[in-house]
Amino acid sequence: MKSINIDVMNLIIDEGNTRIKLAVFKDVQLVDLVISNLEDCKEMIDVFIRKYDIKSLIVSSVTDDVNHIVGELAIINKFFLSHETSLPFTNLYETPKTLGVDRMALVAGAWSQFPNQNSLVIDAGTCVTYDFIDKHGHYLGGAISPGLKMRFKSMHFFTKKLPDLEIPSGSVEMIGKSTKQSMESGVLNGMVFEMDGAIAHYQQKFKDVNIILTGGDANSLYKQLKNSIFVNPNFLLEGLNAVLTYQNKNEAKLK
């Protein structure tokens, strides 16, 4: 397979637990992005392929639902991100086959944008994931915890009287003066404490660490965090683009 020219448009397909993101990159520049569901995904992919003359694409799916759609596309240069995919870092996870493809992409993005540096990527989505790669390019692992919506839903589901609440749009007071406010404080402020504690641990152990916050709930959290962080809602897409770019280089084929 020949290496592609960097001016060729890359199509990135990211299927999460609740939605599908379709993005087009020219080199490292994001030029188009839509959010779709499974029913409309095929039509949107066809639109992007025609509009940008897509010759190369990558799929990251935590459900595998979109894979059959992509499998039918007449594009030779396509990749399905998995534990068998060659990556630009050394994976030291003890159970690599269970490592989520979204976490692989986030680490690839960190190494691509911050090479030879320690980086912690926090993805605040359905679950919150913490992934650390050291300055030597060694992915060491991280942590997984319930996301904001999951925390609210679990309190409602496992109790008889606590209400089913939505995620607040802004910061909340520490001392809740009603049941609603108390739940919001427990979830939002509890998440902030968790993140600040995790960040402090990595900074103490590894000194200089880049902190990247991404995911659907990043905007609900970053202003309350004490630490200096990079907030990038499209970081996963950028990581997938980095993996695809790496696949199209000889390094990936020789690794």
Automatic annotation (TrEMBL):
Q: Which family does it belong to?
A: Belongs to the type III pantothenate kinase family.
Q: Which PANTHER family match?
A: TYPE III PANTOTHENATE KINASE (PTHR34265)
List the Pfam families.
Answer: Pan_kinase
Q: Which residues form a coiled coil?
A: none
Which organism is this protein's natural source?
Wenyingzhuangia gilva
User: Could you tell me what this protein is called?
Assistant: Type III pantothenate kinase
* Named cofactor requirement(s): K(+); NH4(+)
Q: Which controlled-vocabulary keywords does the entry list? A: ATP-binding, Coenzyme A biosynthesis, Cytoplasm, Kinase, Metal-binding, Nucleotide-binding, Potassium, Transferase
Q: What gene is this protein a product of?
A: coaX
**Free-text comment on the cofactor:** A monovalent cation. Ammonium or potassium.
Provide the binding site for ATP: 14-21, 126
